[in-house]
């Protein structure tokens, strides 16, 4: 029997939506493309993730660093105050995030099929739990099957956080798919742990790696049919 474990950010909901909403309030007079700014912000956020996770870099300083650095890439300078105003607006709109319809259908299907499901997500415990509450994910996923890096002290792409999930949920790696949008964190992390992987490649990115996902999807609408196909093939 297959198991399906999900990433959270930018997999079960669209992380760009609250970013764009905050952008339109704080930086509407700039000529920057909001999607490109979002991509650069994520790059800088990922760049210092380990420092943030360990506490070496306070969260507030990370929030300032990532948006100031992203703006700088477009030759625009903002103050720390402006960076924090953006973060305040971004946080507000994160409280309004919605589960993607396509993944609501997926969660309904895997629950009806009585398959094991869970979440592995990188991020601070408090922030990730707020998102999980907002998305009402406990309707489908048991509390103990939600693993947050900031809570367990391990993070993707390290194998340890996947092993925590295996032990907690009694998963067999060869029967477990991890579904996420980050090639490095989700595909590489899962494959190194001996899991299978489904890469939600929303932006049709290329990759240079000898580690390959089992499946690559570029449209959320493809997810349900693929999971049905996997389940019917066994």
Automatic annotation (TrEMBL):
Keywords: Hydrolase, Magnesium, Metal-binding. The keyword Magnesium applies. Pfam families: HAD_2. It comes from Alkalibacterium olivapovliticus. InterPro entries: HAD-like_hydrolase, HAD-like_sf, HAD-SF_hydro_IA, HAD_2, HAD_sf, PGP-like_dom2. GO terms for biological process: small molecule metabolic process. GO terms for molecular function: metal ion binding; phosphatase activity. Its cofactor is Mg(2+). This is Putative hydrolase of the HAD superfamily. The keyword Repeat does not apply.
